[in-house]
Amino acid sequence: MSITRRSARRSVHILGVASASAALALGVAGQALACDITEFSAEAQCDGNKGVIVVTDKDPSGTPATITVFSKNAAGVEKQVGEPQDIKGSAKGTTVNFQEKWKPNATYRIHVKAGDQVDEDIKPDLLTPSTACKKEESQTPTPPATPKPKPKPSASTSTPTPSASESSSAPAGAPGNAPSPAAGDSNLAETGANSNTGLIAGVAGALVVVGGGAVYLGMRRRGAGSGR
Hints:
- The protein is α+β, with helices and mostly antiparallel strands and 228 residues long.
- 33% of the residues lie in helices and 23% in strands.
- β7 and β8 (118-121) form a beta hairpin.
- The chain is rod-shaped and about 230 Å long.
- Mean pLDDT is 76; it is low at 22-31.
């Protein structure tokens, strides 16, 4: 069976169209699998009461990439946060975490380096939330403080209360509690000590003489009366 020139030209045309279609499909597929900066994202989150910056890579080609995070102050001065971290993306997304005690409304620049395909920052810069991470509240209630007992007075420092019998009895040598002298002793002492002893003795003698005279006169009168 002979092949005509027309048939040959037609076959070549069909083959060229098929090759072009295959090349276009491969080009589109290659572009779809290429790593792109739009496949990276960053977010400031809280891990309990600690701040963390999470970078996600959704590159379906799985191109290895290196992520570097920088904090920026109001004057534009940057400071690197931790060390750069490597990541290998996936269609579902792969994440890396940077521990950072971020402040509300702070700005961070995230740079991505993936081979010779990506070497740029995630746009726009990351702006943290206006509220900082809250501290975790303790689940165990704090028991109330136990009042301390008042100290009891020591037996050595307390002063015993004297009893009635003890208070009534006092030492023999204490002033005001000496035994009273007998009455005779008191009179003798007073007689010997009184400076009017001579005067009292004279008056007593005179009274004795007067009394004797009175008795004598009375006896005489009685005798005279009985003689009559």
